[in-house]
Amino acid sequence: MFRIDKDGMVRSALVEARRLTALERGDMPVVNGIVVHQTGGSTAQSTFNSYRNSTIGAHFLIEKDGKIYQTASLLKRANHVGLLKSRCLERHACAPAELKRLQSTTLRKRSTMEHGKVFPDRFPSNRDSIGVELVGEYNRNPDFGKIRGADEFVYVAVTGEQNAALRWLVGELRRTLKVAAEEVYRHPQVSYKTTTEAATATW
C-alpha cells in the first residue's frame, strides 16, 4: 500500500520521485480514470530527456525492468491523452441527433465536443485522468501501405516486469483514488493513436 502526500506525490519504496513540474498543467481536483501508454523511446532516460523539452507527458513512467518513476503530481493535470474519442460513438450509444453531428465533423471538433461533456458522458481526459507510460519503442510495420488499415508503426511487447509493476500501480491508484475498474484504458481506446500502443499491457 502507498500514501499520497500533500504535494500529490506517492510515498512508497516502489516508486521513485522524478517530478518534472513543466509537465503539470494546472489543478486536477478529481481523478476519474487511468490511461496506459507506451513511449516512443527505448529507455526511461530517453523519455526524461524528451520531457525536459515538452509540455506533453504522463504522471508515471515504468522502465522495462519494472522500476516505477513518478514524473508529475497526482494533484495536477498532465497532457497525455490527446484528441478525445467520442464515448457514445465507441459504445454505439449516441442519440440520433448527436450521431449526425459527430459524423459530419472533424476529429478535432469531435474532441472539442467531448470536452464540453461531464464525466461519465465522456472518456476520462487530461483534466481528470492519471497517465502511466511504459517504456517501449515502436518499429515500422512491414504491412503498412500493403494491407488496408495497417498502422505505420507497431509497438514492442510490454515486459513481464512492466506488467507486474503496472498491476501493482493501477491497483493502488484505483484503491486510493476510488477509480472504477472499467475506467482504466489503453491510450488508443480513448484517443486516436496507433492501435498496438500498450496492447500487451495487463493490469
TrEMBL record:
Q: Which UniProt keywords apply?
A: Cell wall biogenesis/degradation, Hydrolase
Q: What range does the record give for the signal peptide?
A: none
All copies of domain N-acetylmuramoyl-L-alanine amidase, residue ranges: 31-193
Task: Give yes or no: UniProt keyword Hydrolase.
Answer: yes
What EC class is this?
hydrolase
Give the superkingdom in one word. Bacteria
Set out the biological process GO terms recorded for this chain's protein.
cell wall organization; peptidoglycan catabolic process; peptidoglycan turnover
Q: EC number(s) for this protein?
A: 3.5.1.28
User: Which transformation does this protein catalyse, written as a reaction?
Assistant: Hydrolyzes the link between N-acetylmuramoyl residues and L-amino acid residues in certain cell-wall glycopeptides
Q: Does the keyword Nucleotide-binding apply?
A: no
Q: Which terms does the record give in the GO molecular function aspect?
A: N-acetylmuramoyl-L-alanine amidase activity
* Protein name as it appears in the record: N-acetylmuramoyl-L-alanine amidase
Name the species this protein comes from. Answer: Lysobacter spongiicola DSM 21749
Organism lineage reads as: Bacteria, Pseudomonadati, Pseudomonadota, Gammaproteobacteria, Lysobacterales
